[in-house]
Structure formats: C-alpha cells, structure tokens
Amino acid sequence: GNSVTQMEGPVTLSEEAFLTINCTYTATGYPSLFWYVQYPGEGLQLLLKATKADDKGSNKGFEATYRKETTSFHLEKGSVQVSDSAVYFCALGILSGGYNKLIFGAGTRLAVHP
Amino acid sequence: GAGVSQSPSNKVTEKGKDVELRCDPISGHTALYWYRQRLGQGLEFLIYFQGNSAPDKSGLPSDRFSAERTGESVSTLTIQRTQQEDSAVYLCASSTGTLRRNEQFFGPGTRLTVL
Questions:
Q1: Degrees, nearest 5: CA angle A13-A18-A20
Q2: CB–CB of B19/B13 below 8 Å?
C-alpha cells in the first residue's frame, strides 16, 4: 500500500543549527511528494513539493530532494530560526480516480530555542 | 474569502449526540477534501468532493459519518451518535481542480471533543 514514515519528534535545536527531518515512503506508481508545515494556531501550509525523481523542492531556506532509489524526501535547512518552530508533515500525492490523493506522515514537531 | 474557513473552531459534545462541522472553501475551488487528525497522528483522508459529487468516500470510518456539498461551495461533515474515539481535529482543504500538481489549501480545523 501507500504510506509515509517520518522521524518521531520532538526535535529540539538551538537557533542556527542544521535541521534534517527524515521522510521515507512506500508507493505504487509515481507519486508527488510534499512537505506541509503547521505553525502554532494555524492551518497546514504547503512548504515545498517535488513531482518527479531527482526534483528538489525549496522554500524559505528549506530543501528536500525526491530520491526514488532510497524512496526518501528528507527535509533540510542549514540554519533554523525560532520562527521555524512548528509541526512538519511529509505527504505523498497519488493519482487516484483522477485526483491527487494526499497521504500524510504522523508529523514531526520542531522546537527551536534561542 | 481569502482562505478556507471552518466552523465552529471548537466543539464539545456528549457521547451519542450528532454534530455538524462546516467548511467554506476558497471561492472558485472545485475540489474539497475532509481529513481527520487525531492527537499526535498524521492526517487521515475522509472524503473528496469534485463539485457537489463525492467520487471518493473511502476514508469515512463508519456509516455514522456523512458529508455533503452544495452549490459547489459549502460542505458539511456530519457525525451521528458521536463516540469518544471521534475526538480529533477535523480539517477541510480545497484546491482548484484535480490535476496532480494542484496545491490543497487547508482551513484551521474544528477541534471536536466527545465527552
């Protein structure tokens, strides 16, 4: 079946530290991959996406590369800020019945302290 | 409106009661989705609407759950005879269509607590 596994949180970092949040997936076909972010008290927002193998999605200093050989889409940022504290969700997009069905991981909470 | 809105933001109900959750999608978005997010877990897909039709209801957990959409706009998710395991945040999302690259825009959610 289709599923997403991401590293358990919480992840606690100091400001300016390097961030990696691991995400691996199992999918049939050729999925799209997404990272969504949920800031405290807000709805989910799309952070970045990649639609085919070797694509790199990037936004706000975050990056993730679609690796088909390792079925991974790890999220990275070189220098985190306190404002990056949020819950990050990796998601798989599968074409199902003509639409893009999203399957989410459990989420990883990131806490950045000054 | 500027984004997806949901109401109420919080709902506390007693076991066995019925509840209705409302979603107002972004104007012009033809696709609408409902998800459930249990505490500490990821989002579970519930149902997808294209226009007023629901071609995919595969995520509805039981026949106590139903949803409708009218005017290709507002959607209501109804849970009958609520149980404690229904406690969760219910999220609605909308998108412009069905193409694989279309982004889903999420509302802030309704937090449902069943006592």
A1: 90
A2: yes
Strand partners, A101: A94
Is residue A21 packed enough to be buried (19+ CB in 10 Å), middle (13-18) or exposed (0-12)? buried
DSSP for B10-65? EEEE-TT--EEEEEEPPTT--EEEEEEE-TTS-EEEEEEEETTEEEE-TT--STTE
Using a CB–CB cut-off of 8 Å, the residues of A that contact B are 4, 32, 36, 41-46, 49, 51, 89, 91, 93, 95-107
CB contact under 8 A, A43 and B104: no
- CA dist B50 and B34 (Å) reads 12
**pLDDT tens over chain A, length 114 residues:** 889 999 888 999 999 999 999 999 999 888 899 999 999 888 889 999 999 999 999 999 999 999 999 999 999 999 999 999 999 999 998 877 667 788 999 999 999 999
Task: Report how far apart the first and last C-alpha atoms of chain A are (Å, whole number).
Answer: 41
Residue B99, both tokens? 């193409």
Provide Rg for chain B, Cα atoms.
Answer: 13
Q: Please, are residues A13 and A114 in contact by the beta-carbon 8 Å criterion? A: no
